Amino acid sequence: MGNGLKTMRLPVRGMHCASCATAVTRALAGTRGVERAEVDMASEVATVTYDPRSATLGDLVRSVSDAGFSVSFDGATLGVGGMHCASCAARVEGALLALEGVAGARVDVASGTATVEFDGSVVSVADLGRAISAAGFEDRGAVSDLGRDDEEAREAEMTAMLRALVLGFAASAALMGVHGAQIPHEVPIGYILLAMSFPFLVLLGRPIFTSAWSALRHRSLTMDVMYAMGIGVAYGSSVLGTFGIVLTHEFMFYDTAIMLAAFLTLGRYLETRAKARTSGAIRRLMDLRPPTALVVGPDGSRREVPVDEVRVGDSVLVRPGDRIPVDGAVVDGDSAVDESMLTGEPIPVRKLPGDEVTGGTVNVAGALTVRTSRTGDETTLARIVAMVRRAQTTRPAVQRIADRAVALFIPAVLVIAFAAFLVWYVALGSSLLFALTTSMAVLVIACPCALGLATPTAMTVGVGRGAELGVLVRDGEVLERSGGVDVVVLDKTGTLTEGSPAVTDVVTLQGDEATLLRSAASVEAFSTHPLSAAVASAAEERGLVPEGATSFEETAGKGVRATVSGRTIVVGNRAMMDAAMVGVPGSVSRRMTSLEAKARTVLVVAVDGEVAGLIGISDPVKPSSKRAVAALRGTGAEVMMVTGDNERTARAVARSVGIETVSAGVLPGDKAAIVARLQGEGRTVAFVGDGINDAPALAQADVGIAIGSGTDVAVESGGFVLMRDDLLDAAAALQLGRKVMSRVRQNLFWAFAYNTALIPVAAGLLYPLWHVTFRPEYGALAMALSSFSVVTLSLTLRAYVPPALSGRTAHGVERKSL
């Protein structure tokens, strides 16, 4: 626009009514730099005119997010080559965010990827790749959630580095031999060393010098700038010494320069190799998908095609022992399918026509014909991979602190190296050779890599290990928050209990049990509540056919009412009876109390204003719940239960599993309010519940844990998504989060300790007392080992088994659920 303003169309998700649209409009209009905002509910699009000098696309997205909605942009994960530290990641991120139409970018050094959210109508994936290349890094293209191209590029890079460092060490050894040999003075030793070393300087040093030059062109300081300076000073001094320009022959460091470059390459090789292992969980997930599928044509013909060519609606034949290649429904066959990769349960599940199957699971027995419903990146397996990748690229607060430290670290090291040279040569009168050597040692021993890799490598391994254990991490920041959880709120139904209530008691006051149960089922048949389903199921098991009902009404958290054959039937709890003005006699109330003390949920059935009887329903406590509660308490957190059930039933269930704090009679919409109240008291709250029914409470909690989601990995609520319906996994999730953050802190400690201890030694601080200093090549070796050790420490998380799961080896933890 001529006045410098820009107009963007934002696809907004989560709006359901006019008030939602008003809230989004108000949030956008209140953003600094926004001139006008209009929201169209029908198309779910917000049109925003803003001043790009005052606001960015990211600011608009955050405003919508803060209002409780989300902006649905295109997304892509791109492979990036040539990144070695946090400064590199910052350059790539800055280059991507500078593109018009890019809403967000997260760059992960450990996995060598950039995850970008962008408006596809403004910018393309090709534009993103060009921005990465222009920043001085290798664009490896888009990485599919189930692709392997980036892995192949990394293997090629490692092979090239290994070849270069082997040649480099051989060359440096040869240079040392020639330099130390007794050669007649008339032989031009300097020229021989120059000719021998130059090819290897190009081979080993070109990636370092190229990256350093690119960083300087973009006015950025990276570790490659320091290393290029160290190698450059060593080789430049050698050349000057060779030709007698300013320096003498004693300044010939050809062997040192090549050894420096070789050690730096060794460090990168070890680091790249270790980082590749941190993404092992992703590779194992991708390997679950078979490369081909056997498509059955309309005429019954069969042809084997690459799985990427299978389309929705295609019929696929899965033979015994084969992995199912796509998500779909069985249309023919009878078999058992091993779903342990999703559920962790070792017992295969029988599949008949009409049953859903998931790609990556194993067909154990008979042949199945499956009609495809989802392929490629839409399958459950691909969405799990995408979720793990997103979580691995999350940058928690501790990483942002480390990144700021790295940004200051490199200029500080350059100052220290220059100061060391001045102090030793000018102030203390040491030889130029000693001062120059000290300065080089400082430049190459400093290791911002260790600081930059401390967090992302631990996060990558930890999130991947969680996926293997059936604990999916939606948001990496939840790992950081989990360490501070001091109260865990558990929903009762389906979390502590099986979530499959069944009728156990029928008490009649009028007529017989069959009449009472038929009357209740006639009303409950219209409700989807689990208790209603239990009543309807009990009637069906006894062969009772419900009667037709009219004027059905349901009151959340209380009960239902309807008219059946001219009679008004009310079924529900005490509150429902009060609302319907039905008096409950004392004898009936005492019987209710007796049943509730046995952990029964009691429904009162009233016919035409009179209590006709009681129905007792039991939801069995899961066998692992008591141990899970103990494990949660073992993390140091208080455990409490919330339920819509009555106080006595709730207390009975709570006592059976070892919970003391109970909130009973809670309406579904009030669970989030309880979480908010606890947060208002300064508590850090984890909520464990169903990913759909408890979505508000999961979203409100500091740490939301959606339990038993199985194949529904698209659930939006909850920082943790548990594949199994087992509360032990909730305890495991918190333990995993604390373990990962503990490893992050240890990594950062060692990275800071290494640099704090060795940089002063390299600068010659101990030389006046004990004549201790570092040769530059030894400094480069120490640098290589420091970053390698940090990544190796992170890799120990691959073998971590949370204490909550330590006794569950028989159920597949060691076999791995994903």
Describe the structure in your own words.
Helix content is 48%, strand content 19%. The protein is α+β, with helices and mostly antiparallel strands and 818 residues long. The strands form 6 sheets. A 7-stranded mixed β-sheet has the order 18-30-29-28-19-26-27, with helices on both faces. The longest helix is centred in the last third of the chain and has 35 residues, at 728-762. The two termini are 51 Å apart.
Task: Briefly summarize what is shown.
The chain is an alpha+beta fold and 818 residues long. It has 27 helices and 30 strands. Strand 9 and strand 10 (302-306) form a beta hairpin.
- Return the structural class: alpha+beta
Specify the overall morphology. Answer: elongated
**Termini separation:** 51 Å
What's the average pLDDT? 84
Rounded Rg: 33 Å
Helix content: 40-55%
Helix count, DSSP H or I runs of 4 or more residues: 27
Report the oligomer. Answer: single chain
Major sheet attributes: 7 strands, mixed
**Fraction in beta strands:** 15-25%
Number of strands: 30
Low-confidence stretches: 809-818
- Strand line-up of the largest beta sheet: 18-30-29-28-19-26-27
Topology of this structure?
Blueprint: E1 6-13, H1 18-29, E2 34-40, E3 45-50, H2 57-66, E4 70-71, E5 74-81, H3 86-97, E6 102-108, E7 113-118, H4 125-134, E8 138-142, H5 149-180, H6 189-217, H7 223-243, H8 254-278, H9 280-286, E9 292-296, E10 302-306, E11 315-318, E12 327-333, E13 335-338, H10 340-343, E14 349-351, E15 356-357, E16 362-363, E17 368-374, H11 380-392, H12 397-427, H13 432-445, H14 448-468, E18 471-473, H15 477-482, E19 487-491, H16 492-496, E20 502-508, H17 513-524, H18 530-541, E21 549-555, E22 559-564, E23 567-572, H19 574-579, H20 586-596, E24 601-607, E25 610-618, H21 625-634, E26 638-642, H22 647-657, E27 661-663, H23 671-680, E28 685-689, H24 695-700, E29 703-706, E30 720-722, H25 728-762, H26 767-770, H27 776-795
Parallel strand pairs: 19-26, 19-28, 26-27, 28-29, 29-30
Antiparallel strand pairs: 1-3, 1-4, 2-3, 5-7, 5-8, 6-7, 9-10, 9-11, 11-17, 12-15, 12-17, 13-14, 13-16, 18-30, 20-25, 21-22, 22-23, 23-24, 24-25
Helix pairs in contact: 5-6, 5-8, 6-7, 6-8, 7-8, 7-13, 8-27, 11-14, 12-13, 12-14, 13-25, 13-27, 14-25, 14-27, 17-18, 21-25, 25-27
